[in-house]
Model the fold of this input.
Amino acid sequence: MLQEKFKKIKQEIIDELQRTKTLEQLDDLQKKYFSRTAGELTKLVKEIKNVAEAERPKIGKIANEVKKEAVEMFERIKKNLETGKQSQDNSRIFDPTIPGKKEEAGRLHILTQMRREVEDVCVGMGFMIVDGPELESEWYNFEAVNVPAWHPARDMQDTFYIKKSRNQEIKKSTDQDNHKLTNLDTNLVLRTHTSNVQVRAMEKYGVPLRCIAPGRTYRNEATDARHEHTFHQVEGLMVDKNISIANFKAVFDAIVKAILGADFKTRIRPGYFPFVEPGFEVDLSCALCQGQGCRVCKHTSWVEFCGAGMVHPNVLKTGGVDPKKYSGFAFGFGLERLTMMRYGINDIRLFHSGDLRFLRQF
Ligand code: DAH
Done:
């Protein structure tokens, strides 16, 4: 054991000496290892007396060698630093007999990879990528997209509320960064969807507008295989003259086919969202059973995937756009859901589990 410790400290000294650039640093190192009372090498030498008597001569010899080598290294480096020769010469203490250090290569999280893929496809169709705050005013998250305080849709999107008294503090600290929080007379919330970016994007860029807003979203709900309190969505918004449902269908199909493959079909059916009129739910053909019917698609051969619709005139107006001249479509889907469809992943909780057995597969 002690023998190992001596080996280790020798390597540490070598490493630290290689990084030493000044005499002051060298002096500090000298104290760290050789100080009479607290020097790390001194302390190790003191431990020798606790070793079984028969072992002592052997350990003593190792200790002496390490100490001698360390002293020599210090002296050599000191001389180099004094004569200005510095670090090229320090590298001469490189010991080729020591095993190399393995560099662990990391990788991008699967959700980051998927987000980038979706972004590439959309940029290819002339969409720009926009961003919005995760800590959002209640106004942009709800009121601005046509969900007033009394609206039942608020119950479906319960989230985490930040107390009013903290708003001024937060306002101060967020004013300087890109995402200015405005309308701070309302409470702050962790955004429940990426739809909070719709009005922000119209205000900032005007029309015509073609953008997607990928990002993290939150809900206050119990987790299970299909629900997480923290997840990711991709919002899409296109506003121009004469935009129709046909434009939505074309754009959306292009995204799905590019990411999931040409075999996937989409189906549009009526659905209600306060920020669109008409609104729809978009289903994907079930990847697992290919139309045969299975548990995942509840034997319907379709899986619910995305909310969408034609942007509600109220939302256009709030964004400063004249609904008599312009129309647009919007959609929002879950990035986790898309990834689950592509790889046949059956539990959303895996994404943030930090389980390397899962993450290393991508
Ligand atoms: N924001 C909705 C949700 O999180 C999804 C959605 C539905 C987004 C319809 C849209 C839309 O842009 O038009 O449930």
Notes: Residues 175-179 have pLDDT under 50 and may be disordered. Strands lie at 128-129, 135-137, 161-162, 188-190, 209-218, 230-240, 266-270, 276-285, 302-311, 327-334. The domain at 110-359 is CATH 3.30.930.10 (BirA Bifunctional Protein; domain 2).
